[in-house]
Amino acid sequence: MAATTTINPESAGFNPATKTFHSLRPPIHLPQEDAPISVVDYVLSIRSASRWPDSTAALIDSATGQRIPYSDLLKRHKSLSYYLQHVLKLSRHDVALVICPNCVQVPILYLSLLSIGVVVSPGNPVSTGSEFARLVELSGPTIAFATSSTAYKLPKLRLGTILVDSPEFESMMTHTFDLDLNLGLGPTQPSQSDVAAILYSSGTTGRIKGVMLTHRNLIGVVALCRSSAVAAGERASPAVLLYTVPLFHVFGFIYSLKSVALMETVVMMPRFGLDGMLKAVEEFGVTDVAMAPPVVVAMVKPGSSERYDLSSLKSLVVGAAPLGKDVIAAFKAKFPAVELAQGYGLTELTGPVSRVLGPKESKKWGSVGRLYGLLEARIVDPETQEFLPPGKQGELWVKGPTTFKGYVGDPEGTIDNMVINEWLRTGDLCYFDDQGFLYVLDRLKELIKYNGYQVAPAELEQLLQSHPCVADAAVIPYPDEEAGQLPFACVVRRPGCILDERSVMEFVAKQVAPYKKIRRVAFVNSIPKSPAGKILRKDLRKMVLAPLLTTSSSKL
Ligand SMILES: CC(C)(COP(=O)(O)OP(=O)(O)OC[C@H]1O[C@@H](n2cnc3c(N)ncnc32)[C@H](O)[C@@H]1OP(=O)(O)O)[C@@H](O)C(=O)NCCC(=O)NCCSC(=O)/C=C/c1ccc(O)cc1
């Protein structure tokens, strides 16, 4: 890390007077805040300035090869919007749950719901019935959109559940209604301050939280993504993107909007598999892939990708969790022509905060890039709350128009802890170097990242404690080369009870989505706690994990 004395604050974008980091990217202009436009109006206005023809493929289904050109996407969006508004009678502020794997219908559904002011609330289709019940309780949807393989898990809603993989849904998108192409939304026209989406994020308390994002927030991130595309320079042909990241989390959610704005072709894979992804890259000439670190780990394994022609590939945008330097080195050696662009983002900031841009910046191994144009940042000492200069580590705080509106049903409580004078506390331990590159070192908040998904230890601890043979339990992250971290349970058995590792894991697995499963168990005599009863996780990590790991304990 650079020493503070050698740092020129200006080259890091740091203002010593305000102790604030400013973006080094070109400024970005957003529409007037009171302009009556939705994020869809904004996306479509950018799209209409694109130089690519409407015959460009908007969406490709990797399994069937079905291609939907932009001309058709727009027609489908108009028809579906009409149907939702005039037949189903959905209106501004209604909430729609969307429980679907990645498929070509979802971006069209998002556009249509957002354009008529319906709040889109996407959830993970592998969640359990009780997890869905909690989402419904939080966001109060009137309708759900799901697939035939997920719908059975959803509670009954006022307007029921529409299956997006049904012939009926296809006809909602393709029926030629007597359309006034300008939908004439009148009073249903969303305003920028309206909530546009509720995304779900794991709370450290174990209760899932609904993160409210406004149309203004989404307009902000579409503008950020567009500025990156402009900075990256013109392409000879439209970019062909493949998302391995799910459309129900912020990374995939905002990418589905920005791809329409930039007229990118998106290849959809319903379920991730490395071979399926590489085959799709070869078959559809994919240029860019959005992914979480485990996919990079899989790609660098010897023999994993050699039989595919990946020459179309220009860049990988990697976010959702840290990427190890050894994996970056292996990737660079194996794919020297492919840019590995790390990014950093979080749901409460509508996704992107920083990213690496272009081949020169991608040489900064381990950095998650520079701040996006609309954002400011501070590095704050967690003990003293002092604002720190480049080269010093502290909690990252971020300010900008993409800061979320609040958590559903918790207007004051949680947001007050997270947002201080418009500054969002990220809960991540970071530093900026002398050129404004951001590095994420650790998480201050108690969350495990499994395959780029957040897992709250508290949620699993509550489940474990409900087992009749468990006297006490704590869950900590266990480092794993492929998944990043695994949920690891430390369990105190009740005297006289027989309880083994397998039964602990099965007990939890039955009640949670697969990514939250406990994947290792240790039996201990007690869980170290503070006098106030708080689990001393650092002590537990040292006590339980250090003997199990051959790597240095600083990695824990
Ligand atoms: C492609 C991954 C890395 C691996 O996929 P996988 O191999 O299918 O594994 P999963 O983790 O999805 O699945 C876990 C378990 O669920 C199972 N599963 C799986 N899909 C099924 C199924 N449809 N049916 C039934 N069982 C199943 C799966 O089999 C497995 O079961 P098990 O055998 O117990 O391990 C996948 O995990 C993944 O995409 N993770 C990324 C998550 C993600 O996007 N997180 C983003 C959060 S938002 C964020 O951080 C924003 C960052 C950001 C950064 C920069 C920006 O510019 C903007 C934003």
Automatic annotation (TrEMBL):
The organism's taxonomic lineage, starting at the top: Eukaryota, Viridiplantae, Streptophyta, Embryophyta, Tracheophyta
Residue ranges annotated for the AMP-binding enzyme C-terminal domain, each copy included: 459-534
UniProtKB keywords: Ligase
Domain AMP-dependent synthetase/ligase: 47-407
One Pfam assignment: AMP-binding_C
UniProt GO molecular function: CoA-ligase activity
PANTHER family per UniProt: 4-COUMARATE--COA LIGASE-LIKE 9, LONG-CHAIN-FATTY-ACID--COA LIGASE
SUPFAM superfamilies membership: Acetyl-CoA synthetase-like
Protein name (record): 4-coumarate--CoA ligase
Family: Belongs to the ATP-dependent AMP-binding enzyme family.
